[in-house]
Amino acid sequence: MTSLADLAELVRAPAALSVPGDLVAGAAAAGVLGPRTAGLAGASVLLYWAGMAANDWADRVLDAEERPERPIPSGRITPAAAAGVAAGLTAAGLGLAAAVGGRRAAAVALPLAATIWGYDLAAKNTAAGPAVMAACRGLDVLLGASPGRPVRALPAALTVAAHTWTVTALSRREVTGADAALPRRTLAGTALVALAATTLPRRATATPAPGLRAGAVAAALPVGLAGWYVARYGGAQARVAADPTAGRVRAAVGAGITGLPSLQGALTARAGAGLVGALVALAAPLGGRLARKLSPT
User: Fold this and answer.
1) CA end-to-end span of the chain, whole Å?
2) Rounded distance, CA 91 to CA 99, Å?
3) pTM value?
4) Which residue, of 10, 12, 87, 176, has the greatest Cβ tally within 10 A?
């Protein structure tokens, strides 16, 4: 019988900690951060887990050779069960998004789900793979902004998408290792992503201007969180550049996944929700600890 631990491994449960920050960053950028954000984040987590299960189903033959310990090739979960989990989670995610955000949320959630499945079933092993995965994360940010004007969240969505492109490009070398040029390119991309997170236009608000000390803290927080992001993820990529073995690449991919909340926190703080941004960033160390018990890649 399939256990909860097997299902958690199938969907890479700890990696879902990197998801709610997408919705929060999008909602903050659009000025609609509120109770609906939590519901939309829940829908996004379900879609993320669906994508992880579909990914393992699509890669079951390859994993039998390269990762025989994974739930499907090890026999702990059947291919049919994995496909059922993926389909069920997709339906649940779409239903929750529509229930919480109505037609506006559904209009984003549907293409998001289609892009997730398109990546797993068609684009993953093609040259378009990193771009398609980046589009998934960009749409995730826009889902958070869907109750308002998603166009306001486009800069944040593109920033998260660019980060995702670097992680996906590295993930293609998790088994074989990489040449040193790849981590150098992704590291340069990470630096640009961090710069964007600290220089995006602030959303105009109707709240009074803060005092000098509060204003200084508000200005410094996005910079500090972006610096934390670079230290975690950039440092892992620098180690890959020095020693581009498969193990180092996997560690960098894991750092890119578990370190994403610090970037999301910077984007949220930059949009004017400093306290919420700091709370979002706390998912980074928590995800790192959980990743030691259950791999996010």
Assistant:
1) 24
2) 12
3) 0.92
4) 10
Say how far apart CA 236 and CA 231 lie, in whole Å.
Answer: 8
Q: Pick from 99, 103, 90, 85: which is nearest to 39 by CA?
A: 99
Reported as type and span, the H/E element at residue 201 is none
d(CA 266, CA 219): 10
Contact at 8 Å (CB) between 123 and 99? no
Residue with token string 């180690």: 239
